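Inverse folding, one chain.
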């Protein structure tokens, strides 16, 4: 009797386990990982990947975890972050499984897993919710501007009077601190999921931060190993365009948001123009690729890919237009375009940065950093075994 009960219990546990695994695999397919059904584990993707020449990784193994729906293995896997979506592997996959897109899908999956708020999951799995969230945040920003804007001066452009400096600064800081906190907590979850509990000294954490995290964050050097260098340049342009706008409109907001006439030839304006042009150019390269499907990685586009790249370009164009109207002294046009600019910036930052693809700016270098710490832990274990 006891033996029978035990057998039934084991059968039930295994059934539940299988259901969970099927759910995970289905979820990955929903996120764009249709190719896991085609992959027959030949390993060509790992063999051909330019990254695997520099790093001991197996993309094939990550695909295997996805096929089997192994949630724990997938959640602790840092490999998908090392892929820079060059598409080499998809060109040579004998089953047309598009491994490059599979890696992108696994990054979406991991972004969802790291996100403790659950918002990421909602946005990735339901494009209607995503669209409604963007529209709601945009309308809310419009309402706040409508009720809280300052006096409308028309004989000259007085942007800092129309949009009071204190209000813009306080809102900017609030959004920045909230988003940074969410992203940091998500990164901590990433660390907990991907790292063993073996302790390392603080010195190692600091040393590897400067040796691994910072250089990779600043140069995105793994992208360079992928075949087409121009995409590395495009990637860097978007990245530094992003950083420049963050410095100008967050750190230096007290200078850039003023009533002074806008001059195109000034150090800050040049940084602003660099930011706008590089992001717009990079954005159009990506959109062109997605429309024409010129590369395997652009064959499939998740709705979030479209929405956020379009928002990013609109942010740059409205920012640029605000500068142009401001410099030629069209006050009403400046106030209107600036308001539209804010109505796009807010949903982009709040939804895009911590919850979807844009978080990869932080996750990628951290994946290399955590991976390196794991290597050090591994070598410590081997030392102990040898002793
Ligand atoms: S090359 Fe294609 S079939 Fe072979 S392991 Fe990679 S994804 Fe699977
Ligand atoms: S897309 Fe490029 S970097 Fe990513 S796995 Fe394929 S070959 Fe490697």
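Residues assigned per position:
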């Amino acid at each position: 009797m006891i033996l029978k009960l035990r057998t039934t219990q084991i059968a039930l546990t295994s059934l539940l386990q299988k259901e969970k695994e099927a759910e995970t695999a289905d979820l990955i397919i929903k996120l764009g990982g249709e190719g896991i059904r085609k992959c027959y584990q030949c390993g060509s993707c790992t063999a051909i990947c330019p990254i695997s020449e520099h790093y001991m990784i197996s993309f094939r193994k990550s695909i295997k975890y996805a096929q089997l729906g192994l949630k724990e293995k997938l959640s602790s896997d840092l490999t998908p972050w090392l892929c820079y979506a060059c598409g080499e592997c998809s060109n040579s996959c004998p089953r047309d499984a598009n491994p490059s897109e599979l890696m992108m899908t696994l990054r979406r999956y991991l972004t969802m897993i790291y996100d403790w708020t659950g918002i990421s999951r909602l946005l990735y799995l339901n494009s209607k919710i995503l669209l409604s969230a963007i529209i709601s945040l945009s309308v809310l920003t419009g309402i706040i501007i409508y009720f809280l804007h300052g006096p409308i001066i028309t004989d000259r452009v007085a942007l800092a009077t129309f949009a009071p400096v204190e209000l813009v600064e306080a809102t900017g800081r609030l959004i920045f601190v909230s988003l940074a906190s969410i992203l940091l907590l998500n990164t901590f979850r990433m660390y907990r999921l991907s790292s063993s509990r073996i302790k390392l000294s603080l010195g190692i954490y600091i040393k590897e931060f400067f040796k691994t995290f910072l250089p990779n964050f600043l140069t995105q050097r793994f992208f360079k190993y992928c075949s087409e260098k121009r995409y590395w340049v495009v990637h860097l342009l978007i990245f530094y365009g992003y950083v420049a706008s963050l410095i100008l409109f967050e750190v230096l907001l007290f200078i850039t948001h003023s009533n002074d006439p806008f001059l195109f030839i000034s150090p800050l304006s040049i940084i602003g123009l660099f930011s706008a042009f590089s992001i717009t150019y990079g954005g159009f390269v990506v959109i062109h690729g997605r429309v024409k499907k010129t590369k395997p990685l652009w064959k499939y586009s998740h709705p979030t890919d479209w929405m956020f790249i379009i928002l990013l370009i609109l942010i740059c164009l409205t920012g640029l237009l605000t500068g142009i109207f401001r410099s030629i002294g069209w006050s009403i046009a400046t106030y209107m375009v600036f308001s539209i600019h804010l109505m796009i910036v807010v949903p982009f930052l709040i939804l895009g940065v911590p919850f979807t693809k844009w978080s990869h700016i932080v996750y990628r270098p951290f994946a290399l950093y955590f991976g390196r710490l794991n290597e050090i832990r591994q070598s410590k274990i081997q030392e102990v075994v040898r002793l």
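The radius of gyration is 24 Å. Residues 45, 49, 51, 59, 83-89, 99-100, 103, 226 surround iron/sulfur cluster (ligand 2) (CB under 6 Å).
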